C-alpha cells in the first residue's frame, strides 16, 4: 500500500513539474479557462437561485389562493345545507327554490374551477421543475 501511495505521489509530482515547466502563456491559458468555467458556474448558480426564489414565491401565492377557494367552497356548502334544512323544515314535498339552486350551481362551479386550478398548478409546477432541472 505504501508503494502504491508512493507511486501516486510520484505521478502527482510529475504533473506538478509538467505544469511548472509549461511556458507562461500555457499557464495563463489554463488559468483563463478555469476562471471562465468558474464564472459560468457562478452564473448558472445565480440563475438557479433566482428561479427557485420565484418558484417558491409563486407556490406560496398559489397555496394562499387555494386555501381561499377551499374556504369559499366550505362556506357555500354550509349555506346550501342550511337552505336545504330550512326547505325540509317548511315542506318535505316542496321543490328546491331558485336561490338554493343558484347556491348549488355556484358551489359546483367553484369546485370545478378549483379542480381546474389544481390541474393547471400541477402542470405549471411540472414545467417549472423541468426548467429548474435544465438550469
Characterise the protein shown here.
The chain has 135 residues and is mainly alpha-helical. The protein folds into two domains: 16-90; 97-134. 92% of the residues lie in helices and 0% in strands. It contains three helices and no strands. The longest helix is centred in the middle third of the chain and has 67 residues, at 24-90. The protein is rod-shaped and about 100 Å long. Keywords: Coiled coil. Residues 1-24 are annotated as: Disordered. This is TNIP2 protein. Residues 1-14 have a biased composition (Basic and acidic residues).
Weakly predicted, low-confidence segments: none
N-to-C SSE series?
HHH
The overall pLDDT average reads: 82
CA gyration radius, whole angstroms: 33 Å
Number of strands: 0
The total domain count is: 2
- Which structural class matches the secondary elements? mainly alpha
Amount of beta strand: under 5%
Largest sheet: none
Task: State the shape.
Answer: rod-shaped
Number of helices: 3
End-to-end CA span: 43 Å
Percent of residues in helices = over 70%
GO biological process, one term: positive regulation of canonical NF-kappaB signal transduction
Protein name: TNIP2 protein
Biased composition (Basic and acidic residues): 1-14
Keywords: Coiled coil
SSE layout:
Elements: H1 2-21, H2 24-90, H3 98-134
Helix pairs in contact: 2-3
